[in-house]
């Protein structure tokens, strides 16, 4: 995303000094782009998301260029014009035609009477879009006007300046917790080793702190006087798609220094209010067929806790996780240790540490048989990281870490007795418990190199020299990566550790293997020389060389054990998913976790339910592993494709044979790659869509977006994607509806979404309540629009037929223009905003109601044609009954009816009929509905009085027609009453028949609710103590349960 709007945040101790480099725009499909001109910005931004165009231009261009004072205003105006043109072309495509015709002498209506309503409608639409754009502009203004301290050479001091006025090459000072919406090069920080931590959550959605190291040659630049003569040149790579790496050279004092960064990404969650970011997708919330969800930070809290570990083949850690308990219950096992981890008592509560085991806590590890291995294990956790300790005023040490896992491991080591308390660029210092003397001693490890973690390496290592002068490589990483790098002597605990890791994965825990090796001095010197040469090179293959050298030294490791960290489920996730599943919504979870972890998290959160059969598609098979060892890539690909194809076909046959059973599909990332093959993708999607739950393990962000696109295109139904991090943006943008978790993970997922919620559990209410209501409201609104306009339009048609199509208008031209603007519009708005067929409580109690929207039961051609027929019937009744009722003498003075009186009488009947039809269609009345419905009718009479008082040159046929002609005549009022009642009879008869013989689900629930309320009152009078039980048992009678069961069965038949 644009760094000038979604800024990075400084998290170092106090302040750091930096050099402004420039501004980039990150496009999800095309990578990093330098924004130069308005037209270039337009090319790189999706036209559908035009508000993002405003964001880029008003921020990046304001900082890059001086003379663009009108940029924001121009963008907002263009946005309004574009969106208003869209609304005109879709909502009133026929309006320009009569407007043009009204200027001709042949038109029966005046031009102002046609133009004014069109202007009102378009003006309201533009005002709505303008309000939304103004809110976005306020966000831009806030970001652009933030202050930063900029170095002023004339006064040799830092002065405050707005970010929008900043220029490339200026020196800036950023203090702790401040934002810097620009690319800067770190020159120095208040720490001795020139390190600072940056939080990039507003860039990439990640809360992990990323360590930035200043070059040693600039790390001593602290005094403002020293900046006076500072001169430097930077030569770096061109803008590219690599958002998380940077290669360049700093030329300072005739020397050159390598510049590079590498970032690891993780997510984290917070609680913020929900909000709608668009008003154009409300009805689609009630028609969601498939939900595609991220896991970490979306279903889970992304708050890591150290709960278990395996050291020297021995498992440590008491208690069971939620996923572990759910799995044991599913298997029907007799649990000997049912206590949840959180229920164990401890002396104190430590964030990130939920480990309980008396064998190694409180210094008891010194009495264990494998105490040497335990000591090495926790030394690795305490020293192998990039964490920076910060001492608070109270003396407490807090850790600034690149990821939640990193901080968790350091905290765990501290609680066991290996406290990390100080680091700089050359050393790491620990307080350790000496197992021999039982006292705390200080140990200093000389830090030689850090081989950082990356998603490709899946591991990190540090090379240190300990106080005994031993040269050690300490490593931790994914078990699959560490195990393949073990020496023969280092595999002593491998089998036991694998068993424990498998058990931890089944418990839904995140695992990591821990190992080390002792290095030979000569070997290290040779390797270091080559490594430093590779790091300082600026060639295209630099990263490849660095990776190869890191891989060379990270060999012949000795396994120490493995860690197990819990990422807990968010509150209410299980109940929410259960409700969504009962509503008939298919749920897909796309996660990067292992298959075992994902499956057991699935059971814990009700994705996988009891009685649901699993279909597992995987390439973790002996024959595939044998081919992998031989390294024949072509053979591996061919066999893998055939294997996935066979598993897909077996799954389809299984689903076809047992259509009455729910199925859950689990597929890993490698298998998913082959399932996306053009020869298999249709079969795979056919199988997946027929399953109630799909879990895709080890999925990459690109795969998430591709899967979302496939689900949307294959099903042809509404899809919803929900995520919390930057890696979910592609998925959110591909789905019909994108929902962002609005938490501490940053704003990128939220900014790419249509709706923002604070927790996953709010999705239940968003869809089952508001989605259901919005679908019914919009459906009713559209059908009612058909009805009221056909009713009105066909009275004109019958009159024109009666006058032989002579062109004589039935109504005054201002009657025509005001019909949809003043006399029938407000009740429709009230319906679309306030109507509720059932209460929120009953929507949640009966999730199957949501299927009305998924199956589009309330907006199909049968219903549309039914409402059109009702409108046609109403027009016939109104016209013919009116013309046949006001015959003969109409007024006391003996005057008969003329066409102006006929028009007013007919128009009055139309206004009364369509508004009363609206009153009959509304399920939930508020005072606003009453005001709008009866106020619209009253407004018609007020209009007649006011407009009729205008001189006849302007009011024409309406001149005093109500006051002098219609109001004094009893025939006018009797005719209105007769016609309106007659026009309403067809709808009343149909609704009575439908409720009695063919009730819809919401009709049954409403009837039963009234019965329950009546029964409750009766029971409360006689047996108050049993009223609650009676209410619960009577709320769902047998007929409703049968109806719901039949809906479930029909849903399964339709899917199969």
UniProtKB/TrEMBL annotation:
Keywords: ATP-binding, Magnesium, Membrane, Metal-binding, Nucleotide-binding, Translocase, Transmembrane, Transmembrane helix. Its EC number is 7.6.2.1. It comes from the Eukaryota. It catalyses: ATP + H2O + phospholipidSide 1 = ADP + phosphate + phospholipidSide 2. Signal peptide: none annotated. The chain crosses the membrane at residues 781-799, 857-881, 901-924, 931-950, 970-990. Residues 1012-1029 have a biased composition (Basic and acidic residues). InterPro entries: ATPase_P-typ_cyto_dom_N, ATPase_P-typ_P_site, ATPase_P-typ_TM_dom_sf, ATPase_P-typ_transduc_dom_A_sf, HAD-like_sf, HAD_sf, P-type_ATPase_IV, P_typ_ATPase. It is found in: Membrane. It is an enzyme of class 7 (translocase). The keyword Metal-binding applies. Residues 750-999 form the P-type ATPase C-terminal domain. Residues 1012-1039 are annotated as: Disordered. It is a multi-pass membrane protein. Belongs to the cation transport ATPase (P-type) (TC 3.A.3) family. Type IV subfamily. This is Phospholipid-transporting ATPase. It comes from Hibiscus sabdariffa (roselle).
